[in-house]
Amino acid sequence: MKGQKETLFKVLKYIKRYRWAVIFSVVLAAVTVATTLYVPVLTGEAVDLIVEHGNVDMPGILRLLILIGIIMVVTAGGQWLLNTCNNYITYHVIRDIRKEAFHKLEILPLKYLDTKSYGDIVSRVIADVDTFADGLLMGFTQLFTGVLTIGGTLLFMLATNVPIALVVVCITPVSFLVAKFIASRTYSMFKEQTVTRGEQTGLIEEMVGNQKVVKAFAMEERVKEQFGEINDRLEKCSLKAIFFSSLTNPCTRFVNSLVYAGVGIFGALLAIGGGISVGRLSCFLSYANQYTKPFNEISGVITELQNALVCAGRIFELIEEEPQIPDAEDARVLEDVQGHVDLQQVSFSYVPERKLIQNLNLKVEPGQRVAIVGPTGCGKTTLINLLMRFYDVKEGSIRVDGTDIRNITRGSLRTSFGMVLQETWLKVGTIRENIAMGNPDAALEEVIAAAKAAHAHSFIKRLPQGYDTVIGEEGGSLSQGQKQLLCIARVMLCLPPMLILDEATSSIDTRTEIRIQKAFHTMMEGRTSFIVAHRLSTIREADIILVMKAGNIIEQGNHESLLAAGGFYANLYNSQFAV
């Protein structure tokens, strides 16, 4: 319950931004409740005007009916304004939460994204926020009017007849106790349901995005079993949560029926004894019905709020995650980059108990081409992550042009590097938009020139709308090689002072690769370049070749000197060309 209260206070902070709308909503709720409660008074007066056969005050009844009609129109107008106001508050709060959650995703460290299921993150930002919105809207719509209706009817009943009102007051606490007992036990059930739903979303996202792999390895049945197991758990915890939460309404209805029956019996005895008129009794019965109705609605609201608060809690967990270390106030903006890169006593590991890079030292002069080779898992890509400051070093320092990169703004550091990865990424949009991602203001002629340099122009011309062809998520129907050519063209358009090529030609045919290598050779002239490659034939012209093993540089030199040394590099190279 402590976590539930904390989440509620966090929600109230967002609602506080729209306090004037909340005040207006409360005023409208008070108006609609007051007019609704006044109608039974008029109805009771109309009943009392029917004394006996032939003794009916028709003009008086007609006057009361007109007044009731006017009040009902006012009530309907107030209800419409109330719903509009509640929608305004709810969806502005939801907008703010989603905006903040998405903003947090942009500044979260990669460590968080690397250790969380993408599907679960999507579930939090989309499904959980929608569920929270439903609960919040129901709370605004029914909670205010329900509480005011209860208070208003109680005042009207006390003003009309105190003994009958006391009967109502004595029975209704039972309804509160029942609702609280059930609600306190359903929070954990809804939490389990929401977590399991996030797990299911994560599996679906993962399987849909990798259907080719699933089918290639005939994993359909195993995936179906895995989905079935999660789905069964979701079914059980959902049924459990909904069943127990659904007990609230019938239980409170039973108590409320006792209230209505008590008012009816006690009021009838008073009417027989002349203690109350029939019209007043009918008015009281109407109040008893209106008094008990909000309890049923509020019990439903409490159930929805339980679920909504669980979902809100998951969103706030994301929003409150520790962001990446912000740029220092005096952080340097890289300008006129020369390309000096100096690694001094660098140590890093993703998991503290498993060492990866230890005491790494490297000095790269401007314009040098540095190739990084070694077996899988030796730390090649990790070194690239550290250079781009996707992760910060644990010990030591990395300096660019004499400045520790932790004292350089991330934006200027990363725009100083042009990066082509083995994994391609394209967004939904036109070919031109994808190439110009790093330079959105580039003219079409510049985009075409970059595409020609990357040898992508020929296949782009064959597309239905050329550079204006819209591609789908992850490149749509383009081949892996074509997608990689677009990523290469993207870098060639920007031409930053430093380059990182991580298996940049791994998905390209040999003939095109030769052309791309020539283009890269031209592009790397005068630019500090880091090249990660498994095919050693592509790095023979590198100025420095770093041979990494278990996070350490075990050999360093150019192609000829490393071959002559007959060490680890020579064995790797000869193994690729052995007959």
Please outline what is shown here:
The chain has 579 residues and is an alpha/beta fold. It is built from 20 helices and 14 strands.
Question: What's the helix and strand layout?
Answer:
Blueprint: H1 2-16, H2 19-48, E1 50-52, E2 55-56, H3 58-107, H4 110-115, H5 118-160, H6 162-171, H7 173-209, H8 211-216, H9 220-246, H10 248-272, H11 278-319, E3 341-348, E4 357-364, E5 369-373, H12 380-387, E6 395-400, E7 403-404, H13 410-415, E8 417-420, E9 429-430, H14 431-435, H15 444-453, H16 457-461, E10 470-471, H17 480-494, E11 498-502, H18 510-524, E12 528-532, E13 544-549, E14 552-557, H19 559-565, H20 568-577
Parallel strand pairs: 5-12, 5-13, 8-11, 11-12
Antiparallel strand pairs: 1-2, 3-4, 3-6, 6-7, 9-10, 13-14
Helix pairs in contact: 1-11, 2-3, 2-5, 2-11, 3-5, 3-11, 5-6, 5-7, 5-11, 6-10, 7-9, 7-10, 7-11, 10-11, 15-17, 19-20
Write structural notes for this entry.
The chain is α/β, with parallel strands linked by helices and 579 residues long. Helix 2 packs antiparallel against helix 3 and helix 3 runs antiparallel to helix 5. It is elongated and about 120 Å long.
